[in-house]
Amino acid sequence: MTSPPSADPPASREGVKFYQVGSFAAGNRLLDPALRTVQADERRANSLTSGHRACQGCGEALGARYTLDAVMRATGGQMVAVNATGCLEVFSTPFPETSWRVPWLHSLFGNAPAVATGVAAALRAQGRTDVRVVAQAGDGGTVDIGFGCLSGMFERNDDVLFVCYDNEAYMNTGVQRSSATPPAARTATTEAVGPQPGNPFGQGKNLPLLAIAHDIPYVATATVADLHDLEAKVERAMAVRGARYLHVLVPCPLGWGSAPRDTVRLARLAKETGLFPVLEAEHGEVVRVSRIRHRQPVEEYLRPQGRYAHLFTASGAPARPDLIGGLQRIADRNVRRFGLLDGGDDEDQGRGSGDRAPAGADPAGASPRSPTGAG
Ligand SMILES: Cc1ncc(C[n+]2csc(CCOP(=O)(O)OP(=O)(O)O)c2C)c(N)n1
Ligand code: SF4
Ligand SMILES: [Mg+2]
User: Fold this and answer.
1) Taking CB atoms and a 6 Å cutoff, what residues make up the pocket around ligand 2?
2) Is residue 20 part of a domain?
3) How many separate domains does the chain show?
């Protein structure tokens, strides 16, 4: 295995104002070495390396590589990963091959949190508190079949970082609906037929808010549109002990009916429309949100996706303004609830999002819905 990048925790990024960071680009080279993105470091772990069988443009592969490489840097390479069944596991480990270059265990579909708890307990019994445990799963493995184990892991405050790669359906088995599928989205089990085509409004779960309600030390959301922000959140998560939860929006070209080249653009639009709030919470309180920089109407996010094709005419005009309006109201409510447009100028804070403290965010008053779900 390649030696991992430095475990030195990066200092604060506040005060550094480059728009173009997180790559080999000029902005990154001008940063203090401790602040540079993991992927710009030639000593990065390449935890999920080339040769796997993910679709072109897979957001989950992108998110997992950045997340685990950031964990490797934060832990000095002392890390064990537990992986639920799902696309990430299937495309990375077709027997007898593997694309993982880290200690990696495949659990079942629903028990990754419990397996990770067991690994953490075994390490503690051996006195190996230097080795950290990360569990990862898709949205189905997290919000549906794995939720009981995950809630228990949160409630016991087990020393595990749990990462959900949310592509908003059961992609590995053919795009069935999950509790994280947004309203009006077509899946194999929510066909675009009838008076309310696609997934019904008013159902689903908002796992970040449910995690916050467990009062665990750290909860964050992120997207693959801002990978430097994702890395920074992984670093913050690994700086604390106890149960931590990271929910990453990862567009899926196959399931979303989108072009592979649009993966990052769609992740950005999910945030910029307000449909996917990007935030951090500590011990039950939202402490930072990523402000929307250039607000977009939800149509801009929906139109490029085949799963919403029934909402538009062939020329791209709205065919179902009632359903599009329903989705816009969800975005508007997220903006109000988390203060996504409030305060500050348009200056970046050195990691792409313009993070700041929330204005009047009140997770206790929020109802349990999917981040992109109805409410
Ligand atoms: C108990 C059980 N039920 C069903 C399955 C089949 N199965 C494997 S992966 C999967 C869906 C995974 O969806 P998600 O967790 O969202 O991950 P994704 O593939 O979308 O990344 C299902 C239903 C299984 N492996 N085990
Ligand atoms: S189906 Fe979606 S999540 Fe699965 S490998 Fe393809 S793009 Fe990635
Ligand atoms: Mg999924």
Assistant:
1) 54-55, 58, 60, 87, 91, 167, 171, 252-255
2) no
3) 1
Distance CA 104, CA 276 (A): 30
> Which ligand 1 atom is at minimum distance from the Cα of 178?
16
pTM of the model: 0.90
Q: Token digits for 136? A: 């990862």
Any idea which ligand is nearest the CA of 55?
Answer: 2
Q: Which pLDDT tens digit goes with each residue over 232-289?
A: 999 999 999 999 999 999 999 999 999 999 999 999 999 999 999 999 999 999 999 9
Residue nearest atom 5 in ligand 2 by C-alpha distance: 54
Q: How many residues does the chain have?
A: 375
Residue 370 in any domain: the answer is no
Q: Is 154 helix (H, G, I), strand (E, B) or coil?
A: helix
Residue 139 lies in a domain: yes
User: What is the tens place of the pLDDT at every residue in 1-55?
Assistant: 344 444 444 445 555 555 555 454 556 777 777 778 888 788 899 999 999 999 9
CATH code (residue 200):
3.40.50.970
Cα gap 114→116, rounded to integer Å: 5
